[in-house]
Protein backbone atom coordinates (compact mmCIF):
# COMPACT_ATOMS: atom_id res chain seq x y z
CA UNK A 1 0.00 0.00 0.00
CA UNK A 2 1.37 3.47 -0.93
CA UNK A 3 2.15 5.95 1.84
CA UNK A 4 0.83 9.46 1.15
CA UNK A 5 2.58 12.35 2.90
CA UNK A 6 0.21 14.77 4.60
CA UNK A 7 1.31 18.39 4.28
CA UNK A 8 -0.70 20.57 6.62
CA UNK A 9 -1.00 24.26 5.73
CA UNK A 10 -3.55 25.26 8.39
CA UNK A 11 -1.06 27.78 9.79
CA UNK A 12 -0.25 29.29 6.38
CA UNK A 13 -3.04 28.90 3.79
CA UNK A 14 -5.56 28.21 6.58
CA UNK A 15 -4.65 31.47 8.27
CA UNK A 16 -5.30 33.18 4.93
CA UNK A 17 -9.04 32.68 5.66
CA UNK A 18 -10.72 36.07 5.78
CA UNK A 19 -11.11 37.15 9.41
CA UNK A 20 -8.60 34.69 10.88
CA UNK A 21 -5.55 35.98 12.73
CA UNK A 22 -3.73 33.59 15.03
CA UNK A 23 -1.34 34.93 17.62
CA UNK A 24 1.97 33.29 18.44
CA UNK A 25 0.80 31.09 21.29
CA UNK A 26 -2.27 29.98 19.31
CA UNK A 27 0.01 28.96 16.41
CA UNK A 28 2.24 27.04 18.80
CA UNK A 29 -0.73 25.21 20.27
CA UNK A 30 -2.03 24.22 16.85
CA UNK A 31 1.46 23.13 15.73
CA UNK A 32 1.80 20.87 18.80
CA UNK A 33 -1.58 19.31 18.07
CA UNK A 34 -0.64 18.79 14.40
CA UNK A 35 2.46 16.99 15.65
CA UNK A 36 0.24 14.76 17.83
CA UNK A 37 -1.92 14.12 14.77
CA UNK A 38 1.34 13.03 13.11
CA UNK A 39 1.12 15.11 9.96
CA UNK A 40 4.30 14.69 7.92
CA UNK A 41 4.87 18.38 7.18
CA UNK A 42 3.64 21.53 8.89
CA UNK A 43 3.69 24.69 6.80
CA UNK A 44 4.01 27.08 9.71
CA UNK A 45 3.69 30.38 7.83
CA UNK A 46 5.29 32.78 5.37
CA UNK A 47 8.39 34.08 7.18
CA UNK A 48 8.83 37.16 4.96
CA UNK A 49 5.20 38.25 5.41
CA UNK A 50 5.66 39.81 8.86
CA UNK A 51 7.85 39.78 11.94
CA UNK A 52 5.12 37.88 13.79
CA UNK A 53 5.01 35.16 11.13
CA UNK A 54 8.81 34.93 11.13
CA UNK A 55 8.89 34.51 14.91
CA UNK A 56 6.18 31.81 14.88
CA UNK A 57 7.76 29.82 12.03
CA UNK A 58 11.12 29.98 13.79
CA UNK A 59 9.81 28.78 17.13
CA UNK A 60 7.66 26.06 15.58
CA UNK A 61 10.67 24.83 13.52
CA UNK A 62 12.82 24.75 16.65
CA UNK A 63 10.18 23.08 18.85
CA UNK A 64 8.43 20.51 16.71
CA UNK A 65 10.34 17.25 16.30
CA UNK A 66 7.74 14.77 15.10
CA UNK A 67 6.79 16.59 11.88
CA UNK A 68 8.95 18.38 9.34
CA UNK A 69 8.40 22.18 9.37
CA UNK A 70 8.38 24.42 6.31
CA UNK A 71 7.69 28.04 5.36
CA UNK A 72 6.54 29.71 2.15
CA UNK A 73 8.65 32.09 0.06
CA UNK A 74 8.39 33.94 -3.22
CA UNK A 75 11.14 33.47 -5.78
CA UNK A 76 13.21 36.40 -4.55
CA UNK A 77 16.40 36.07 -2.51
CA UNK A 78 15.08 38.18 0.36
CA UNK A 79 12.11 35.82 0.97
CA UNK A 80 14.41 32.78 0.74
CA UNK A 81 16.99 34.28 3.10
CA UNK A 82 14.28 35.18 5.60
CA UNK A 83 12.87 31.66 5.39
CA UNK A 84 16.35 30.26 6.01
CA UNK A 85 16.78 32.39 9.13
CA UNK A 86 13.44 31.10 10.41
CA UNK A 87 13.92 27.45 9.51
CA UNK A 88 17.66 26.74 9.75
CA UNK A 89 17.57 25.26 13.26
CA UNK A 90 14.72 22.91 12.50
CA UNK A 91 15.20 19.13 12.33
CA UNK A 92 15.11 19.01 8.53
CA UNK A 93 15.03 22.53 7.01
CA UNK A 94 12.58 22.60 4.14
CA UNK A 95 11.46 25.57 2.03
CA UNK A 96 8.39 25.99 -0.13
CA UNK A 97 9.00 28.35 -3.08
CA UNK A 98 6.25 29.28 -5.51
CA UNK A 99 5.74 31.25 -8.68
CA UNK A 100 2.68 31.50 -10.89
CA UNK A 101 2.76 29.81 -14.30
CA UNK A 102 -0.68 30.54 -15.82
CA UNK A 103 -0.93 33.15 -18.62
CA UNK A 104 -3.25 35.39 -16.59
CA UNK A 105 -0.96 35.43 -13.53
CA UNK A 106 2.26 35.84 -15.53
CA UNK A 107 0.88 38.64 -17.71
CA UNK A 108 -1.10 40.73 -15.24
CA UNK A 109 0.25 39.95 -11.78
CA UNK A 110 3.93 39.17 -12.28
CA UNK A 111 4.27 41.19 -15.49
CA UNK A 112 6.80 38.63 -16.72
CA UNK A 113 7.14 36.63 -19.90
CA UNK A 114 7.07 32.81 -19.63
CA UNK A 115 10.84 32.81 -20.28
CA UNK A 116 11.42 35.18 -17.36
CA UNK A 117 9.24 33.02 -15.11
CA UNK A 118 11.25 29.89 -15.97
CA UNK A 119 14.48 31.78 -15.34
CA UNK A 120 13.28 33.17 -12.00
CA UNK A 121 11.98 29.78 -10.87
CA UNK A 122 15.24 28.02 -11.75
CA UNK A 123 17.41 30.68 -10.11
CA UNK A 124 15.38 30.66 -6.91
CA UNK A 125 15.45 26.86 -6.61
CA UNK A 126 19.22 26.84 -7.18
CA UNK A 127 19.67 29.58 -4.62
CA UNK A 128 17.48 27.83 -2.05
CA UNK A 129 19.15 24.49 -2.64
CA UNK A 130 22.47 25.94 -1.46
CA UNK A 131 20.93 26.17 2.02
CA UNK A 132 17.94 23.90 2.34
CA UNK A 133 18.27 20.11 2.16
CA UNK A 134 14.69 19.93 0.93
CA UNK A 135 13.22 22.35 -1.60
CA UNK A 136 9.58 22.22 -2.62
CA UNK A 137 8.57 24.21 -5.67
CA UNK A 138 4.97 25.11 -6.58
CA UNK A 139 3.56 26.21 -9.92
CA UNK A 140 0.92 28.61 -8.67
CA UNK A 141 -2.30 28.36 -10.74
CA UNK A 142 -0.91 25.21 -12.39
CA UNK A 143 -4.38 24.05 -13.37
CA UNK A 144 -4.90 27.03 -15.69
CA UNK A 145 -1.41 26.69 -17.12
CA UNK A 146 -0.60 25.65 -20.66
CA UNK A 147 0.42 21.97 -20.22
CA UNK A 148 3.56 21.93 -22.42
CA UNK A 149 4.79 25.03 -20.56
CA UNK A 150 4.01 23.40 -17.20
CA UNK A 151 5.96 20.29 -18.22
CA UNK A 152 8.87 22.44 -19.34
CA UNK A 153 9.16 24.49 -16.16
CA UNK A 154 8.73 21.41 -13.97
CA UNK A 155 11.62 19.72 -15.79
CA UNK A 156 13.80 22.81 -15.33
CA UNK A 157 13.16 23.19 -11.60
CA UNK A 158 13.86 19.49 -11.06
CA UNK A 159 17.18 19.94 -12.83
CA UNK A 160 17.82 22.96 -10.61
CA UNK A 161 17.43 20.78 -7.51
CA UNK A 162 13.76 20.71 -6.47
CA UNK A 163 12.84 17.69 -4.34
CA UNK A 164 9.08 18.11 -4.33
CA UNK A 165 6.96 19.58 -7.14
CA UNK A 166 3.54 20.83 -6.24
CA UNK A 167 0.72 21.24 -8.80
CA UNK A 168 -1.76 23.59 -7.11
CA UNK A 169 -5.31 24.22 -8.19
CA UNK A 170 -4.96 27.71 -6.78
CA UNK A 171 -8.43 28.94 -7.72
CA UNK A 172 -10.40 25.69 -7.27
CA UNK A 173 -11.14 25.44 -10.99
CA UNK A 174 -10.21 21.89 -11.98
CA UNK A 175 -12.38 18.74 -12.02
CA UNK A 176 -11.14 15.38 -10.67
CA UNK A 177 -10.80 13.84 -14.12
CA UNK A 178 -8.88 16.83 -15.51
CA UNK A 179 -6.62 16.97 -12.45
CA UNK A 180 -5.76 13.31 -12.89
CA UNK A 181 -4.91 13.99 -16.54
CA UNK A 182 -2.44 16.76 -15.55
CA UNK A 183 -0.58 14.31 -13.30
CA UNK A 184 -0.57 11.72 -16.11
CA UNK A 185 0.66 14.31 -18.59
CA UNK A 186 3.55 15.35 -16.36
CA UNK A 187 4.56 11.74 -15.74
CA UNK A 188 4.58 11.11 -19.47
CA UNK A 189 6.22 14.37 -20.59
CA UNK A 190 8.74 15.29 -17.90
CA UNK A 191 11.75 12.98 -18.34
CA UNK A 192 13.20 13.57 -14.84
CA UNK A 193 9.85 13.42 -12.98
CA UNK A 194 10.88 10.28 -11.05
CA UNK A 195 13.46 12.34 -9.14
CA UNK A 196 10.77 14.24 -7.23
CA UNK A 197 7.74 13.67 -5.08
CA UNK A 198 4.58 15.05 -6.67
CA UNK A 199 2.21 17.04 -4.51
CA UNK A 200 -1.42 18.18 -4.86
CA UNK A 201 -2.83 21.38 -3.36
CA UNK A 202 -6.53 22.02 -3.98
CA UNK A 203 -8.94 24.84 -3.24
CA UNK A 204 -12.65 24.42 -2.76
CA UNK A 205 -14.20 27.17 -4.91
CA UNK A 206 -16.35 24.63 -6.76
CA UNK A 207 -16.60 22.25 -3.80
CA UNK A 208 -14.22 19.73 -5.38
CA UNK A 209 -11.04 20.15 -3.31
CA UNK A 210 -11.25 16.76 -1.59
CA UNK A 211 -12.35 14.89 -4.73
CA UNK A 212 -9.57 16.52 -6.71
CA UNK A 213 -6.98 15.60 -4.06
CA UNK A 214 -8.17 11.98 -4.12
CA UNK A 215 -8.01 11.99 -7.92
CA UNK A 216 -4.41 13.23 -7.68
CA UNK A 217 -3.59 10.28 -5.41
CA UNK A 218 -5.10 7.91 -7.94
CA UNK A 219 -2.85 9.44 -10.58
CA UNK A 220 0.40 9.26 -8.69
CA UNK A 221 0.55 12.17 -6.20
CA UNK A 222 2.80 11.29 -3.25
CA UNK A 223 1.82 14.24 -1.08
CA UNK A 224 -1.45 16.01 -0.32
CA UNK A 225 -1.67 19.56 0.98
CA UNK A 226 -4.65 20.79 2.91
CA UNK A 227 -5.93 22.21 6.13
CA UNK A 228 -7.86 21.06 9.15
CA UNK A 229 -11.59 21.71 8.71
CA UNK A 230 -10.83 22.87 5.17
CA UNK A 231 -10.21 26.45 6.23
CA UNK A 232 -8.25 28.69 3.87
CA UNK A 233 -8.25 31.47 1.31
CA UNK A 234 -11.77 32.16 -0.13
CA UNK A 235 -13.79 28.91 0.00
CA UNK A 236 -10.90 27.15 1.69
CA UNK A 237 -8.53 24.28 1.03
CA UNK A 238 -9.01 20.54 0.89
CA UNK A 239 -9.88 19.14 4.33
CA UNK A 240 -6.99 16.91 5.35
CA UNK A 241 -9.13 14.96 7.79
CA UNK A 242 -11.64 14.08 5.08
CA UNK A 243 -8.90 12.84 2.75
CA UNK A 244 -7.21 10.76 5.46
CA UNK A 245 -10.49 9.13 6.49
CA UNK A 246 -11.52 8.53 2.87
CA UNK A 247 -8.22 6.74 2.24
CA UNK A 248 -8.70 4.67 5.39
CA UNK A 249 -12.31 3.70 4.79
CA UNK A 250 -11.83 3.10 1.05
CA UNK A 251 -8.39 1.48 1.15
CA UNK A 252 -9.91 -1.21 -1.06
CA UNK A 253 -10.26 1.48 -3.74
CA UNK A 254 -7.26 3.78 -3.24
CA UNK A 255 -4.70 1.27 -1.96
CA UNK A 256 -3.01 4.20 -0.20
CA UNK A 257 -2.71 5.29 3.42
CA UNK A 258 -1.49 8.21 5.49
CA UNK A 259 0.49 8.17 8.72
CA UNK A 260 -2.10 10.30 10.52
CA UNK A 261 -3.21 9.25 13.99
CA UNK A 262 -6.85 9.30 13.03
CA UNK A 263 -8.16 9.30 16.59
CA UNK A 264 -6.59 12.76 17.07
CA UNK A 265 -8.76 14.21 14.29
CA UNK A 266 -11.71 15.33 16.37
CA UNK A 267 -9.51 17.04 18.96
CA UNK A 268 -7.46 18.80 16.27
CA UNK A 269 -10.59 19.95 14.49
CA UNK A 270 -12.10 21.36 17.69
CA UNK A 271 -8.89 23.18 18.57
CA UNK A 272 -8.53 24.76 15.12
CA UNK A 273 -12.16 25.83 15.17
CA UNK A 274 -11.87 27.32 18.63
CA UNK A 275 -8.65 29.24 17.98
CA UNK A 276 -9.52 30.49 14.50
CA UNK A 277 -13.16 31.25 15.35
CA UNK A 278 -14.20 29.38 12.17
CA UNK A 279 -17.25 27.37 13.17
CA UNK A 280 -17.56 23.83 11.86
CA UNK A 281 -20.82 23.30 9.93
CA UNK A 282 -22.88 20.65 11.75
CA UNK A 283 -23.10 18.54 8.59
CA UNK A 284 -19.38 18.66 7.76
CA UNK A 285 -17.98 15.24 6.86
CA UNK A 286 -15.94 13.52 9.61
CA UNK A 287 -15.85 16.43 12.08
CA UNK A 288 -19.32 18.03 12.01
CA UNK A 289 -21.52 17.74 15.10
CA UNK A 290 -24.02 15.67 13.10
CA UNK A 291 -21.47 13.40 11.41
CA UNK A 292 -22.33 10.58 13.84
CA UNK A 293 -25.85 11.61 14.84
CA UNK A 294 -28.84 9.61 13.66
CA UNK A 295 -32.12 11.49 13.66
CA UNK A 296 -34.76 9.62 11.73
CA UNK A 297 -36.68 6.60 12.97
CA UNK A 298 -35.78 4.25 10.13
CA UNK A 299 -32.06 5.05 10.46
CA UNK A 300 -32.12 4.78 14.26
CA UNK A 301 -33.88 1.42 14.03
CA UNK A 302 -31.26 0.22 11.51
CA UNK A 303 -28.34 1.41 13.64
CA UNK A 304 -29.76 -0.22 16.77
CA UNK A 305 -30.08 -3.53 14.92
CA UNK A 306 -26.72 -3.33 13.10
CA UNK A 307 -24.59 -0.20 13.28
CA UNK A 308 -23.10 -0.59 9.80
CA UNK A 309 -26.51 -0.15 8.19
CA UNK A 310 -26.02 3.62 8.36
CA UNK A 311 -22.49 4.16 9.70
CA UNK A 312 -19.48 3.73 7.44
CA UNK A 313 -17.08 5.50 9.81
CA UNK A 314 -17.05 4.48 13.45
CA UNK A 315 -16.91 7.59 15.67
CA UNK A 316 -14.06 6.12 17.76
CA UNK A 317 -11.89 6.00 14.63
CA UNK A 318 -11.66 9.80 14.60
CA UNK A 319 -11.70 10.28 18.37
CA UNK A 320 -15.41 10.86 18.92
CA UNK A 321 -16.70 9.00 22.00
CA UNK A 322 -19.81 7.52 20.44
CA UNK A 323 -22.54 8.07 17.95
CA UNK A 324 -25.76 9.69 19.10
CA UNK A 325 -29.43 9.10 18.56
CA UNK A 326 -31.11 12.45 18.45
CA UNK A 327 -34.69 12.12 19.58
CA UNK A 328 -36.89 14.44 17.59
CA UNK A 329 -39.96 14.47 15.45
CA UNK A 330 -38.53 11.97 12.95
CA UNK A 331 -37.71 9.36 15.57
CA UNK A 332 -39.55 6.07 15.74
CA UNK A 333 -40.62 3.67 18.48
CA UNK A 334 -37.43 1.56 18.43
CA UNK A 335 -35.12 4.46 19.25
CA UNK A 336 -37.63 5.90 21.73
CA UNK A 337 -38.06 2.60 23.55
CA UNK A 338 -34.32 2.03 23.57
CA UNK A 339 -33.62 5.44 25.10
CA UNK A 340 -36.34 4.89 27.68
CA UNK A 341 -34.75 1.57 28.58
CA UNK A 342 -31.37 3.28 28.97
CA UNK A 343 -33.07 5.73 31.32
CA UNK A 344 -34.41 2.79 33.35
CA UNK A 345 -38.03 2.68 32.14
CA UNK A 346 -39.41 -0.67 31.00
CA UNK A 347 -42.64 0.26 29.22
CA UNK A 348 -45.68 -1.96 28.81
CA UNK A 349 -47.11 -1.80 25.27
CA UNK A 350 -50.08 0.46 26.14
CA UNK A 351 -47.88 2.72 28.24
CA UNK A 352 -45.37 2.88 25.38
CA UNK A 353 -48.20 3.91 23.03
CA UNK A 354 -49.27 6.76 25.29
CA UNK A 355 -45.83 8.11 26.16
CA UNK A 356 -44.65 7.76 22.56
CA UNK A 357 -47.66 9.81 21.44
CA UNK A 358 -46.89 12.47 24.08
CA UNK A 359 -43.26 12.45 22.91
CA UNK A 360 -44.31 12.95 19.27
CA UNK A 361 -46.63 15.81 20.25
CA UNK A 362 -43.82 17.46 22.16
CA UNK A 363 -41.34 16.85 19.31
CA UNK A 364 -43.65 18.75 16.97
CA UNK A 365 -43.08 21.83 19.13
CA UNK A 366 -39.51 21.29 20.22
CA UNK A 367 -36.40 20.66 18.06
CA UNK A 368 -34.61 18.15 20.23
CA UNK A 369 -35.96 16.12 23.11
CA UNK A 370 -33.57 15.76 26.03
CA UNK A 371 -33.38 12.99 28.65
CA UNK A 372 -34.88 15.41 31.17
CA UNK A 373 -37.85 15.94 28.85
CA UNK A 374 -38.33 12.18 28.58
CA UNK A 375 -38.24 11.79 32.34
CA UNK A 376 -40.78 14.57 32.72
CA UNK A 377 -43.05 12.82 30.20
CA UNK A 378 -42.76 9.60 32.19
CA UNK A 379 -43.57 11.36 35.44
CA UNK A 380 -46.65 12.84 33.77
CA UNK A 381 -47.61 9.40 32.53
CA UNK A 382 -47.08 7.50 35.74
CA UNK A 383 -48.05 10.05 38.33
CA UNK A 384 -50.26 12.47 36.46
CA UNK A 385 -52.59 10.98 33.89
CA UNK A 386 -54.53 8.73 36.24
CA UNK A 387 -55.82 11.82 38.05
CA UNK A 388 -57.45 13.49 35.04
CA UNK A 389 -60.84 14.45 36.43
CA UNK A 390 -60.81 17.88 34.91
CA UNK A 391 -58.86 18.27 31.68
CA UNK A 392 -57.82 21.51 30.01
CA UNK A 393 -59.23 21.61 26.48
CA UNK A 394 -57.93 25.06 25.63
CA UNK A 395 -56.10 27.94 27.26
CA UNK A 396 -55.68 31.44 25.95
CA UNK A 397 -53.89 34.24 27.75
CA UNK A 398 -53.80 37.87 26.72
CA UNK A 399 -50.95 39.91 28.10
CA UNK A 400 -49.73 43.39 27.28
CA UNK A 401 -47.87 46.04 29.24
CA UNK A 402 -50.92 48.34 29.03
CA UNK A 403 -53.59 45.69 29.53
CA UNK A 404 -54.90 43.65 32.41
CA UNK A 405 -53.82 40.01 31.86
CA UNK A 406 -56.86 37.95 30.91
CA UNK A 407 -57.20 34.18 30.64
CA UNK A 408 -59.90 32.24 28.79
CA UNK A 409 -60.04 28.56 29.62
CA UNK A 410 -62.14 25.64 28.40
CA UNK A 411 -62.25 22.61 30.72
CA UNK A 412 -63.71 19.17 30.23
CA UNK A 413 -65.55 18.22 33.42
CA UNK A 414 -65.54 14.70 34.90
CA UNK A 415 -68.95 14.06 33.28
CA UNK A 416 -67.65 15.02 29.81
CA UNK A 417 -69.11 18.54 29.53
CA UNK A 418 -67.11 21.47 28.13
CA UNK A 419 -67.21 24.58 30.34
CA UNK A 420 -65.65 27.90 29.54
CA UNK A 421 -64.73 30.89 31.71
CA UNK A 422 -62.62 34.04 31.48
CA UNK A 423 -60.92 35.97 34.27
CA UNK A 424 -58.26 38.54 35.00
CA UNK A 425 -55.36 38.83 37.41
CA UNK A 426 -52.38 41.00 38.30
CA UNK A 427 -50.19 38.68 36.17
CA UNK A 428 -50.79 35.97 33.58
CA UNK A 429 -50.48 33.07 36.05
CA UNK A 430 -52.86 34.79 38.48
CA UNK A 431 -55.34 35.36 35.62
CA UNK A 432 -55.24 31.61 34.86
CA UNK A 433 -55.69 30.62 38.50
CA UNK A 434 -58.51 33.14 39.09
CA UNK A 435 -60.30 31.76 36.02
CA UNK A 436 -59.89 28.16 37.16
CA UNK A 437 -61.14 29.15 40.64
CA UNK A 438 -64.33 30.50 39.07
CA UNK A 439 -64.92 27.13 37.40
CA UNK A 440 -64.72 25.17 40.66
CA UNK A 441 -67.58 24.64 43.11
CA UNK A 442 -65.67 26.05 46.07
CA UNK A 443 -62.68 28.39 46.57
CA UNK A 444 -59.16 27.21 45.81
CA UNK A 445 -56.33 28.67 47.86
CA UNK A 446 -52.81 28.69 46.37
CA UNK A 447 -50.28 27.85 49.11
CA UNK A 448 -47.08 27.44 47.09
CA UNK A 449 -45.91 27.87 43.49
CA UNK A 450 -42.52 26.79 42.10
CA UNK A 451 -41.18 26.78 38.58
CA UNK A 452 -38.06 25.30 36.97
CA UNK A 453 -36.83 24.17 33.57
CA UNK A 454 -36.22 20.49 32.80
CA UNK A 455 -32.85 21.19 31.17
CA UNK A 456 -30.69 24.15 30.18
CA UNK A 457 -31.25 26.13 27.01
CA UNK A 458 -34.09 27.91 25.33
CA UNK A 459 -35.81 24.71 24.23
CA UNK A 460 -36.19 23.15 27.69
CA UNK A 461 -39.59 22.38 29.19
CA UNK A 462 -41.14 24.40 32.00
CA UNK A 463 -42.03 22.37 35.09
CA UNK A 464 -44.40 23.87 37.67
CA UNK A 465 -45.21 22.58 41.17
CA UNK A 466 -48.12 23.97 43.19
CA UNK A 467 -49.64 23.34 46.59
CA UNK A 468 -53.31 24.27 47.07
CA UNK A 469 -56.10 24.00 49.61
CA UNK A 470 -59.45 22.92 48.12
CA UNK A 471 -62.57 21.39 49.66
CA UNK A 472 -60.78 21.31 52.99
CA UNK A 473 -57.80 19.33 51.74
CA UNK A 474 -54.24 20.27 50.87
CA UNK A 475 -52.99 18.87 47.60
CA UNK A 476 -49.86 19.06 45.43
CA UNK A 477 -49.92 19.29 41.67
CA UNK A 478 -47.35 19.19 38.90
CA UNK A 479 -47.48 20.30 35.27
CA UNK A 480 -44.96 20.16 32.43
CA UNK A 481 -45.19 21.96 29.11
CA UNK A 482 -43.01 23.92 26.75
CA UNK A 483 -44.86 27.08 27.76
CA UNK A 484 -44.70 28.02 31.44
CA UNK A 485 -48.30 29.33 31.45
CA UNK A 486 -49.57 26.01 30.15
CA UNK A 487 -47.41 24.19 32.73
CA UNK A 488 -48.85 26.46 35.46
CA UNK A 489 -52.44 25.71 34.42
CA UNK A 490 -51.73 21.98 34.23
CA UNK A 491 -50.16 21.94 37.70
CA UNK A 492 -53.18 23.70 39.23
CA UNK A 493 -55.70 21.38 37.57
CA UNK A 494 -53.56 18.40 38.54
CA UNK A 495 -53.69 19.48 42.22
CA UNK A 496 -57.50 19.93 42.01
CA UNK A 497 -57.89 16.49 40.40
CA UNK A 498 -55.86 14.91 43.19
CA UNK A 499 -58.39 16.24 45.72
CA UNK A 500 -61.16 14.44 43.85
CA UNK A 501 -59.05 11.30 43.64
CA UNK A 502 -58.46 11.44 47.39
CA UNK A 503 -62.18 11.88 48.03
CA UNK A 504 -63.01 8.98 45.75
CA UNK A 505 -60.47 6.76 47.46
CA UNK A 506 -61.81 7.69 50.92
CA UNK A 507 -65.32 7.01 49.77
CA UNK A 508 -64.38 3.55 48.46
CA UNK A 509 -62.55 2.75 51.69
CA UNK A 510 -65.63 3.68 53.74
CA UNK A 511 -67.88 1.55 51.49
CA UNK A 512 -65.54 -1.39 51.93
CA UNK A 513 -65.50 -0.93 55.72
CA UNK A 514 -69.32 -0.70 56.00
CA UNK A 515 -69.74 -3.79 53.75
CA UNK A 516 -67.20 -5.73 55.76
C1 LIG B 1 -1.62 31.31 -3.72
C2 LIG B 1 -1.11 31.82 -2.43
O1 LIG B 1 -1.69 31.54 -1.43
S1 LIG B 1 0.27 32.79 -2.46
C3 LIG B 1 0.58 33.22 -0.80
C4 LIG B 1 -0.29 34.33 -0.35
N1 LIG B 1 0.18 34.78 0.93
C5 LIG B 1 0.47 36.02 1.20
O2 LIG B 1 0.34 36.91 0.37
C6 LIG B 1 1.03 36.26 2.57
C7 LIG B 1 0.80 37.62 3.10
N2 LIG B 1 1.38 38.60 2.20
C8 LIG B 1 2.05 39.68 2.63
O3 LIG B 1 2.26 39.91 3.81
C9 LIG B 1 2.54 40.57 1.56
O4 LIG B 1 1.77 40.40 0.39
C10 LIG B 1 4.04 40.32 1.25
C11 LIG B 1 4.88 40.69 2.46
C12 LIG B 1 4.30 38.88 0.87
C13 LIG B 1 4.48 41.17 0.07
O5 LIG B 1 4.09 42.49 0.32
P1 LIG B 1 4.47 43.68 -0.69
O6 LIG B 1 5.91 43.66 -0.93
O7 LIG B 1 3.91 44.91 -0.09
O8 LIG B 1 3.78 43.32 -2.09
P2 LIG B 1 2.28 43.08 -2.48
O9 LIG B 1 1.72 42.02 -1.63
O10 LIG B 1 1.51 44.35 -2.54
O11 LIG B 1 2.44 42.54 -3.96
C14 LIG B 1 3.03 41.31 -4.20
C15 LIG B 1 4.31 41.45 -5.00
O12 LIG B 1 4.93 40.16 -5.04
C16 LIG B 1 5.05 39.73 -6.40
N3 LIG B 1 4.96 38.31 -6.42
C17 LIG B 1 3.85 37.57 -6.29
N4 LIG B 1 4.18 36.28 -6.31
C18 LIG B 1 5.51 36.22 -6.47
C19 LIG B 1 6.42 35.17 -6.57
N5 LIG B 1 6.00 33.91 -6.44
N6 LIG B 1 7.72 35.43 -6.72
C20 LIG B 1 8.14 36.72 -6.79
N7 LIG B 1 7.30 37.77 -6.70
C21 LIG B 1 6.01 37.50 -6.55
C22 LIG B 1 3.92 40.46 -7.12
O13 LIG B 1 4.11 40.49 -8.49
C23 LIG B 1 4.04 41.83 -6.46
O14 LIG B 1 5.19 42.43 -6.98
P3 LIG B 1 5.28 43.99 -7.42
O15 LIG B 1 5.28 44.72 -6.12
O16 LIG B 1 6.57 44.07 -8.14
O17 LIG B 1 4.10 44.24 -8.27
C1 LIG C 1 1.51 28.75 -2.67
C2 LIG C 1 0.60 27.82 -3.33
C3 LIG C 1 0.94 26.41 -3.05
C4 LIG C 1 -0.80 28.06 -2.93
O1 LIG C 1 -1.13 28.27 -1.79
C5 LIG C 1 -1.81 27.95 -3.98
O2 LIG C 1 -1.46 27.88 -5.14
O3 LIG C 1 -3.01 27.94 -3.63
Automatic annotation (TrEMBL):
GO BP annotation list: L-leucine biosynthetic process
SUPFAM superfamilies with a match to the protein in the record: 2-isopropylmalate synthase LeuA, allosteric (dimerisation) domain (SSF110921), Aldolase (SSF51569)
Requisite cofactors: Mn(2+)
Pfam families found in the cross-reference section: HCS_D2, HMGL-like, LeuA_dimer
Pathway in which this enzyme or protein is active: Amino-acid biosynthesis; L-leucine biosynthesis; L-leucine from 3-methyl-2-oxobutanoate: step 1/4
CDD domains attached to this UniProt entry: DRE_TIM_IPMS
Molecular-function GO term, any one: manganese ion binding
Catalytic activity, as annotated: 3-methyl-2-oxobutanoate + acetyl-CoA + H2O = (2S)-2-isopropylmalate + CoA + H(+)
Keyword line: Amino-acid biosynthesis, Branched-chain amino acid biosynthesis, Cytoplasm, Leucine biosynthesis, Manganese, Metal-binding, Transferase
EC number(s) given by UniProt: 2.3.3.13
Listed GO CC annotations: cytoplasm
InterPro entries: 2-IPM_HCS-like, 2-isopropylmalate_synth_dimer, AIPM/Hcit_synth_CS, Aldolase_TIM, LeuA/HCS_post-cat, LeuA_allosteric_dom_sf, LeuA_bact_synth, PYR_CT
Domain Pyruvate carboxyltransferase: 4-266
Binding positions for Mn(2+) per the UniProt entry: 13, 201, 203, 237
Location of region: Regulatory domain: 391-516
Quaternary organization: Homodimer.
Function noted in UniProt: Catalyzes the condensation of the acetyl group of acetyl-CoA with 3-methyl-2-oxobutanoate (2-ketoisovalerate) to form 3-carboxy-3-hydroxy-4-methylpentanoate (2-isopropylmalate).
Entry similarity comment: Belongs to the alpha-IPM synthase/homocitrate synthase family. LeuA type 1 subfamily.
Record protein name field: 2-isopropylmalate synthase
Organism the protein comes from: Melghiribacillus thermohalophilus
Gene coding for it: leuA
